[in-house]
Design brief:
There is one protein chain. This protein is of the alpha/beta class. It contains 14 helices and 15 strands. It has helices at 38-58, 82-87, 97-107, 110-113, 126-133, 147-154, 211-225, 250-266, 270-273, 283-295, 298-302, 320-328, 345-352, 367-376, and strands at 3-6, 17-20, 29-33, 62-67, 70-76, 116-120, 137-142, 162-166, 175-180, 183-188, 231-236, 239-245, 333-337, 355-360, 380-383. It has a six-stranded mixed sheet with strand order 3-8-7-6-4-5.
Amino acid sequence: MNEFALKYGCNPNQKPARIFMANGLNLPLEVLNGRPGYINFMDALNSWQLVRELKEALKLPAAASFKHVSPAGAAAGLPLSDVLKKIYFVEGKELTPLACAYARARGADRMSSFGDWIALSDVCDAATAKLIAAEVSDGVIAPGYEPEAFEILSRKKKGEYNIIRIDLDYVPEQLERRQIFGITFEQGRNEVRIDENLFTNIVTKNSNLPESAKRDLIISLITLKYTQSNSVCYAKDGQAIGIGAGQQSRVHCTRLAGDKADNWHLRQHPKVLALPFRDDIGRADRDNAIDVYISRTPEDILGEGAWQRVFRERPEPLTEEEKREWLSKVTGVSLGSDAFFPFGDNVERAYKSGVKYIAQPGGSVRDDLVIETCDRFGMVMAFTGLRLFHH
């Protein structure tokens, strides 16, 4: 099959719509269940490239959570701590390496991941499928599915869940094309290899870049390669924890991603872990409540007494002082940027979210001031010489 008809394009008024191979070859994918749409396929193909490259770079299973052609989360299949199991709601679950990767990718930014598209680098096993089954998502792409995993997934959405199998051996043409306003654009594919060799040009006084930081910087940069620009990505413990996509200003990317990274850390605060949720609260309402609790008191947003709809008893507020104290202990975070930092304000904001290691292309007329800011905070920064714009 070299063509797949779609219900419509990006919007219902955009018809007809299809995906097809212009060279007459068969599509390198197979829709096993459901009927994916235009945006589903865009998410599927971008997310698949991300997880394929992550696995190749780190030799670990990888997963990604995509929304509107940018990742909400991306991760490698490293074991989960007890705290991460709790905040990802996978306590007591079977956790294979692939399931760990998925739990990390889905749990990095649970608000943004609601209704996401999932990509898996490896054949989906039953343990991973069971985790996916419990979350709200549009579909999944993987190189294959174990029989039990497929049975579990095909029951989602009353049997209409989107399941795509991608051909592991597919290699696209070197040139890629797209049309805008009837005009065809053509460029070479971005096939640059991202590995630790990018981090040899360390420009700061502190040059101590541990292996864990190199791993997290690789995750950050590969994630950025498939994130709508401008973008930055905070990473820690083998996963992205904050992604700032599609902003016009570099510092706005850094702030947005930094706020998400802060939220990820605050979800691990003892007060958040101890929130007394009612047993009849669904996952989405619980995630919303946690976000509200972290940002402000429930009454600030929902009104007096609203806590009773979510909690068994009124939770003690998480004060601004407690948040600052908790976040002040955060360190060892890695940060990648898809283009150079034009000012030191990006570094200053990153430092507030525990960033210790930075990888960015360099090349700004103010590189000296950016380096000076890093040195002031004792950070390690490598100039990669590699821009990663994605549009």
